[in-house]
Amino acid sequence: MTGGGTYNAHMAVGLTLGAMTVPGTLYRRVTLFLELLTVTLLVGAAYGSATPVGAAGGAPGDDLPEGPGKKVLVRACTTCHDLDEVVKFKGYYTKPQWRDIVVTMKEYGADVDDAEVEVLSDYLAEVLGKK
Ligand code: HEC
């Protein structure tokens, strides 16, 4: 009777282990998926930070002072690229150069009218301009 009991216990363990190989495979797949996701995110982050110089970390747009130009900037200049793409050029361009950029972006399709081009160029030169 005791012997039989032991045997049955082994059977039970064997069955349990056997059943566990299925979730085990699933677990490995989930882990693999998470690893791939992590790699993708790391590569993405590395790629993102590999682009130029300038404003390090944080939410760049929020560092900019309020003003009429900021509204235009946030509204019209974040549809195709991040504000970061603009802010990272802080200190690189003079006012006429910022104006050229705004005009170029308008040609690309930025939603700014002629008056806003002036407001925005003034603002960009003031907060991000070459001193
Ligand atoms: C229709 C899409 C679009 C909109 C809207 C847009 N941009 Fe761009 N922007 C681009 C593209 C595409 C590039 C990269 C190609 C290039 O540099 O010409 C770029 C690049 C830039 C650069 C980098 C220029 C450099 O010297 O490399 C700056 C600065 C910039 N944009 C500012 C702005 C500002 C300011 C606005 C708002 C007035 C704006 N963008 C709106 C498409 C856009």
SSE blueprint:
Elements: H1 2-50, H2 60-63, H3 68-76, H4 84-87, H5 95-108, H6 114-128
Heme C binds at residues 76-77, 79-81, 85-86, 89, 101-102, 105, 108-110, 112, 120.
- The number of helical segments is 6
- What fold name stands as the CATH topology of the largest domain? Cytochrome Bc1 Complex, Chain D, domain 2
Kindly provide the name of the CATH class of the largest domain. Answer: Mainly Alpha
The small molecules bound here are: heme C
Coarse morphology: globular
End-to-end distance: 94 Å
How confident overall, as mean pLDDT?
Answer: 75
Which sheet architecture does the biggest sheet show? none
Order of helices and strands: HHHHHH
DSSP helix fraction? over 70%
Strand content: under 5%
Radius of gyration: 29 Å
CATH architecture descriptor of the largest domain: Orthogonal Bundle
The figure for the number of domains is 2
Low-confidence stretches: 36-43, 49-58
The CATH homologous superfamily of the largest domain is named: Cytochrome c-like domain
Task: Quickly give the structural class.
Answer: mainly alpha
Would you report the number of β strands? Answer: 0
3D architecture notes:
It is a single chain. By secondary structure, this protein is mainly alpha-helical. It folds into 2 domains: 1-50; 60-128, Cytochrome c-like domain (Cytochrome Bc1 Complex, Chain D, domain 2, Orthogonal Bundle). The protein is 73% helix and 0% strand. It contains 6 helices and no strands. α3 packs across α6 and α5 crosses α6 (114-128). The relative contact order is 0.11.
